[in-house]
Write a structure and sequence with these properties.
Elements (H helix, E strand, L loop, with lengths): L8 H8 L22 E2 L9 E2 L1 H11 L8 E10 L2 H8 L5 E4 L4 E2 L1 H6 L3 E4 L9 H12 L32 E2 L2 E2 L9 H19 L1 H9 L2
Parallel strand pairs: 2-5, 3-4, 3-6
Antiparallel strand pairs: 1-2, 7-8
Length: about 220
């Protein structure tokens, strides 16, 4: 499952030249018994299976021994929302240890004892944490030095200032009867910036009132 799409395009080329690296640690290698079991039935009864604390702890300790300064993140639907400030924090840090759960969840004790920070990519439930981990990786890796072709591209994107990104246009000038807004071809850079700001504010008010409220407080 890894590197998956992270092995393609800009991230893939950056991986090849060593701008970032990835190590995968299969949890089953630390499983119990001949069949390397990693899960068991939920205490108290309920459907599904739960990843065992002892098994998962062994995998985490192998990947992140004492003294490792990297944060440990468990991809979980009940975690804090993944937002751009956390992405920027991780991109500026020493790296990250991502724990991908499966089944019904993870024994709460390993979350507590191994200081796992729970992070969610949205209000959805996935089959496992691997896809969510790829989302987080993609968001972080693209901000690393030398990964994006134009480093300034990341400075005007959605969420960087609690605003959604403004609309984009390119050639042809007229397509299916729709023209590029005249201000974008006027050559007036100040007017262009004002238009982009106004459009970003409009879209944020319409689509993400929660972000708009936060952006308004920062003014």
């Amino acid at each position: 499952m890894f590197p998956g799409p992270m092995g393609a395009s800009l991230a893939g080329r950056a991986l090849e030249r060593g701008a970032w690296s990835l190590e995968t640690v299969p949890i089953r290698e630390f499983g119990e018994g001949r069949h390397r079991l990693v899960d068991d039935t939920p205490a108290g009864g309920s459907p599904g299976m739960v990843l065992r604390a002892d098994v998962l702890a062994r995998a985490i300790d192998h990947a992140s021994p004492p003294g490792d300064e990297r944060p440990r993140i468990l991809l979980s639907p009940r975690g804090e929302p993944l937002r751009q400030p956390l992405v920027r924090e991780l991109s500026a840090g020493p790296g990250v240890v991502l724990v991908c759960g499966r089944f019904e969840g993870v024994d709460e004790r390993v979350i507590e004892r191994r200081s796992l920070r729970e992070v969610s990519i949205g209000d959805v439930v996935l089959s496992g944490g691997e896809i969510a981990a790829l989302v987080l990786l993609d968001a972080v890796v693209r901000l690393l030095p030398g990964v994006m072709g134009n480093a300034s591209s990341g400075e005007t994107e959605s969420f960087e200032s609690d605003l959604l990104e403004h609309p984009h246009y390119t050639r042809p000038a007229v397509w299916e009867g729709l023209a590029i807004p005249p201000v974008l071809t006027s050559g007036d850079h100040g007017a262009v910036e004002r238009w982009r700001r106004a459009e970003a504010e409009r879209l944020t008010r319409e689509r993400r009132p929660d972000l708009w409220e936060r952006a308004s407080r920062r003014r």
